[in-house]
Amino acid sequence: MEIKNNRLVGATFVEAHSYNKTAVIKPDAIIIHYTAGASGSATVKLFSAKTSTTSAHFVVSEDGTITQMVDLNRKAYHAGTSSYNGRSSYNNFSIGIEISNPGYLQKIDGKYYTWWEAKKDKKTATSADKVFIGKHRNAVTTMTYWYKYTDAQIQAVKELCQAICKAYDIIEILGHEEIAPGS
């Protein structure tokens, strides 16, 4: 993978609706998020909708496909109210990567459900082979059942981060929970 002129070479570009089209940033951080949604295509659709108030530079789908939504020298709205290790307002200097993933799961009667399935009367359980059981290192987040990332996503994010680090002077790669715990 390669970054040229603030874009990932070969990636599909779908412009996000909500980002700062005039503010130029000099990125030195990467923030990795999970979408808490059903699919990468749903996230791309959400970020490009005229009603959207959030965005990220990239969305990584389940099959490892990467969609770029904001040029890397523009301010996307992915970090919210954020601070870490004495720095704040991460939207001003970070690249946001959203990985398509429902996130935490709820265990009901021995089965695992996404947040939206758990609300339904007739639920469809998540296959147990897609569940990771572990405690988040951030004490604010108490959920212990998580949806696994695919191998294709992990490889795509790794290569994407390497390409970004090669193109920019990145000093930190963090997760959303580190810069905005509990949000």
How are the secondary structure elements laid out?
Elements: E1 3-4, E2 7-8, E3 12-13, E4 19-24, E5 29-34, H1 40-48, E6 58-60, E7 66-68, E8 74-76, E9 83-84, E10 87-88, E11 94-99, E12 106-108, E13 111-113, H2 115-118, E14 131-133, E15 145-147, H3 151-167, E16 172-175, H4 176-179
Parallel strand pairs: 3-7, 5-11, 5-16, 6-11
Antiparallel strand pairs: 1-2, 4-8, 6-7, 9-10, 12-13, 14-15
Main attributes of the structure:
183 residues, single chain, alpha/beta, 16 strands, 19% helix, two-stranded antiparallel sheet, six-stranded mixed sheet, 4 helices
Question: Describe it for me?
Answer:
The chain has 183 residues and is α/β, with parallel strands linked by helices. 19% of the residues lie in helices and 29% in strands. Strands 3-7-6-11-5-16 form a 6-stranded mixed sheet, with helices on both faces. Strands 1-2 form a two-stranded antiparallel ribbon. A two-stranded antiparallel sheet has the order 4-8. A hairpin with a 2-residue loop joins strand 9 (83-84) and strand 10. The protein is globular, with a radius of gyration of 16 Å. 31% of the residues are buried. The model has no long low-confidence stretch (mean pLDDT 93).
**Beta-sheet strand percentage?**
25-35%
Question: What is the strand tally?
Answer: 16
Low-confidence segments: none
**Separation of termini?**
31 Å
**Portion of residues within helices:** 10-25%
Biggest sheet statistics: 6 strands, mixed
Order of helices and strands: EEEEEHEEEEEEEEHEEHEH
Q: What is the approximate shape?
A: globular
Q: Pairing-aware structural class of the strands and helices?
A: alpha/beta
Across the major sheet, the strand order is 3-7-6-11-5-16
Q: Radius of gyration over alpha carbons?
A: 16 Å
- Number of distinct helices: 4
Q: What's the overall average pLDDT, rounded? A: 93
